[in-house]
Amino acid sequence: MSAAPTGRTPPPVPVLDIGGTHVTAALVDPAAGRALPSPVIRTPLESHAEADAVLDAVARAALALPGGHDPRWGVAMPGPFDYATGVGRFADVGKFESLNGVDVGAGLRERLADRSERLCFVNDADAFAVGEYRSGAAAGHERVICLTLGTGVGSSFLSRGRPVHTGPLVPPDGHAYRLTVHGGPLEDTVSRRGIRTHYARLTDATGDPHLPDVRDLAARARKGDAAARQAFRYAFDALGQALAPWIDRFEATAVVIGGSMARSWDLIHPALTSGSASAGGPDVPVLPARHPEEAPLLGAAHWARGTPEVS
Q1: Distances (CA, A) of 1 to 6, 71, 77, 131, 305
Q2: Cβ-Cβ contacts under 8 Å for 104 (sequence gap 6 or more)
Q3: pLDDT in tens, 261-278
Q4: Domains with residue ranges and CATH for the chain
Q5: Residue 58 class from Cβ within 10 Å (0-12 exposed, 13-18 middle, 19+ buried)?
Q6: What is the pLDDT of residues 139-165, one digit of tens each?
Q7: Which of 139, 154, 156, 226 is paired with 166 by a 20 to 30 Å CA distance?
Q8: Confidence class for position 1, pLDDT limits 50, 70, 90
């Protein structure tokens, strides 16, 4: 990437953060390292819609941004996805399956027309981690593990600000969700589904279609509901146990937590740290994200401006 001419303010970087329920479009000030205060466009996104409908919805959010921005877009995208080619690999994952095999990059460039010269795709957890490393809770840590906790477990193992996806120091593909705990996949226990399922077992409500969601369970736990507290404790103690050997192996000096479940920090933090300790994990700080909403936008912008490709 060529540097901006001396004396000129670089144009803002347009970014997209694409999730299973929404898409966020924003402009990031590359000099200040922050999203511009307005406009930030956040619109619903139906991950089970047909491919054209998904791409149209993403493009509408992007086109709602004012012009005059950098022609290179940073796009934070959940996996499985071929980030180098911009092609979806969403087979049998329960979201965006209409984009499986679809050239998402080409579809968006066509819709954005002269507003886009290049789309730089990055895993959404990696974008979050890079954003927190640049100006958040991961700053100053040479090796850090960042997790996003929501419907599942997103993860990024950062070494000097670069995601590590291969090698013996990280789980397969650098993804914590590939780990196992209690004899099964991690996300059978640590996920929206896993927490609700465990609560149902504790309350003899298995099969109940009206189980409270995780946010409601957190509220119940704070009001003294023993089963709700145990459901959280079981899930995040398990996460600590599963993560402990990788914190040690990666030689991470901190773990940073974001995602929608991080709002229940008072329930997550004690269980995760005790689970890690019980599994012999090193005593490193477990920190809440400093910019949980903005970090993926900042990370995607940094990626678009020339971060080397992941290892």
Answers
A1: 15, 12, 22, 20, 7
A2: 55, 77, 81, 86, 87, 88, 121
A3: 999 999 999 999 999 999
A4: 13-123 (3.30.420.40), 137-288 (3.30.420.40)
A5: buried
A6: 999 999 999 998 889 999 999 999 999
A7: 139
A8: very low
